[in-house]
Task: structure prediction
Amino acid sequence: MSGDGAICASPGASRRSMRSTSHASMSTLIQADSKPPPRATNRRGVPWWRSAWFDVVQFLVLSGAVVWVTYRGATAMDYRWQWYRVPRMFYRVIDGEIIWGPLVNGLMVTLEIAAWGMVLTLIVGLITAILRLSDSLAGRVLARVYLEVVRNTPLLVQVSIFYFVLQPILGFNSPIWAGIICLSFFEGAFASEIIRAGILSVARGQWEAGSSIGLSRGQAYRYVILPQAVPLMLPPMAGILINLIKHSAILSFVAVFELTTEARNLVGDTFMSFEIWFVIGPMYLVLTISLSTVVTYLERRVRVRA
Result:
């Protein structure tokens, strides 16, 4: 009886197995149909809109659009291009002697402002950061007041104060140095926060280690803290120094004959607005990219030594 029952149950079980198999197959087909189609990728598995060639196409299209808009605007204004006069703004050869043009002279002044400004910016920033971290109440209050005043007033107002007020009071007549000192104090306020953050990022145990071997606070800064903090400061500090170069253009307001001032004078003399500003822009771009490259190189060297 049990054997017959087993024999009779076998066909039912097989039918149930077949039905479950068919249901599983159908559900698999439904899931396969509901899946989204695969993304179009290249051989490396990268979507085409993220590939390098698509980036190149975007750049070319954007550049072409800018050139077309500029050309259409100049055509609508009936502007006459005079690119052949641009080289003489850099240099001229007279009787076998090279006479540098106004753009080169302005570039030299901009480089002078940037070089001295960077040095003074780092000095002002370091002193301010140390004052803020010191135990002196007067030093902390002085640094805080300086930061709040500089960061919450326009740069143009500060340039006017340094040129028209502080310069006569201090008794020196040098527009370029009034501008350099003003830019240094302006950028030094932001640099001080970067330096302070870099110093605070060093573990407290490093201070204790310096004290345990008999180092003074100044020696601990020099030999222990700053060597570890400098690699962290360099990337944001590059932005401060680049801003210093760009902000030097505002010194044209106080008759400092830097690059922007010379460009404005040339535009007034020749009415070549398009050509001159299309030359000045890339010149500033070369300066800032070169500085960024140098800072990146220094960052790598410092990290390797650290």
Q: What stands out?
A: Residues 102-305 form a domain with the MetI-like fold fold (CATH 1.10.3720.10).
